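Structure tokens please, single chain.
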Amino acid sequence: MLRLAEERLEVGKRLVSEGSTRVRRYTVTDRVSENISLREQHAEIFRRPLSETGSPDSVDWSEKTVEVAETHEQPVINKTAHIKEEVVVRKDESDRVETVSDSVRRQEVDIDHADTAQASDTAHNAGTLPEASGSDNAREYDVTSGQARTDHPEHKESLADKAGDKIAEAKEKVEDKLKKP
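Here you go.
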């Protein structure tokens, strides 16, 4: 018995890491300067001589105090935070189709008939009955249909019945083996 094998291409996929993207927020301190105009108020005292004459009744002899407020401005610093930009991080997914090509092997068989003038006959899924090999009654049968090929006149019906049973058994065995990895 000859077994014919055939490779099949099974294409799957796997997840491959391409690294990661990291977005880090940090704080940078910058020195800034602003010019500001500040005002100061101080009391200045001036004395000047006078030479006026008057009566003693016209002079105010009571005690008085004159008070002048002195001020100066100081800079006051107030900080406010203003949001100037927003950074959004999200994942972007896309699908793509990639064509994968490879070669697969398949075994076939050539059948030479000793009783015919043909050099060879290529048959897919075909074989020769084991009990008829090397005799004048060599027959071909189709494994997929389980039927004896009757395109040659020398095929006999009784041999076809026997071959049909053998073919069905062989077909089941081949299908079971092809289903297993």
